[in-house]
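Kindly go through one protein, given below as sequence and tokens. The question is how this chain folds according to its tokens.

***
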Amino acid sequence: METYPTLILQDSLNLVWLLLALFIAGVFESFLWKTPLFEPLNRPIQIDWFGKNKRWRGLVSLPLTHAVSVGLLQLLERAIGWPSDPLISFSDFNWIEYGLLVGFIFNLAELPNSFVKRRLNIPPGDESNWLFYLVDHMDSTYGTLLLWWLYFRFPFHLILTGTIATPLLFILATEIRKKLGLK
């Protein structure tokens, strides 16, 4: 029987590994947005509901770049002999299915939060209120956690650990992307 500290450490390592694919996808995505291919998608989904910053390109580009990053991490896992137990391995999944679903849900889960914020007249990207800043980093990650639990059948203890760890990791990733000039 594993102890709680061991389980939390193992879950945290799994979460970092899983979220690394999303971080890589976010970096790829920022370059993809600058290509002429994505220019037609650079328009708001619905300004009155979600504001001008929620664009079609994100709903399309993140699933694609996430699938690519998952495929690349699968190659890395094979090259280094990644242990599939107790760690989660991307090689256990179909990279296209996993990559597209997680990338799509990650961005789709932002829309309800944006809808509520537009009703409350909170400007897009407003980081002046720590509560809204935190919620902005919970929506996508909680949507992803639900997908992992309900569709991919990840263990519930991983989801519980993720409710605290994933928003914090996402905040860290956002700050890194800002420092790199990618956000």
The chain has one domain: 4-179. The radius of gyration is 17 Å. The chain has seven helices and no strands. Residues 41 and 57 are 5 Å apart (CA to CA).
